[in-house]
Amino acid sequence: WLSMMLVHPDSRHVGVGTLLMDAALDALASEPCVRLDATPLGEPLYRRFGFSGEYELTRAKVTVPLGPFGSVPEGVLPMKAVDLAEVFARDRQVFGADRSALLTSFYRRAPDLARTLCRGGTLIGYCFGRPGYLYRQLGPVVANDTTAARELVAGCLASQAGETLAVDVPRLDSEWTAWLESAGF
Predict the structure, then answer these.
(1) Shortest CA distance to 67 belongs to which of 160, 183, 129?
(2) Measured distance CA(142)–CA(1) in Å, rounded
(3) Rounded CA separation 7/21 (Å)
């Protein structure tokens, strides 16, 4: 079961998040384990419900310069509807749950941010994006290794001149963080 909970800034701190979290946990009462991915803004609410952190995220953002950002790495292509079945199957293996409805929503709302990376006919990675309140958000980015993840993000950024985008990355991944800084994040 997957859900994304967002509360409009004008409605925060009045109990909306608590009501939504109560309803979500009631719906998941029979599940043996419930996990979530929280932004720093939502973390205090989730801690009140007994959640604890596995790792911390850092939000990095960039306004892609006008003009050429760089070349699109070989094998990084815009995702097509025909790619979705293979991407969903891979995502179920990696994530451990079916996120196809959520990823379909991301694909429909921001198809220009969806990319695949294939080598020798094999899917190496994929990324999606979505509109956000302040800027567009990249993610999830799923790849066999950090190099492939960087190639996906670079391929996506190459088509986003003038746009401001953000990506959340684990704080423990210094190699990934260093690359993001070198790319202007």
Answers:
(1) 160
(2) 19
(3) 11
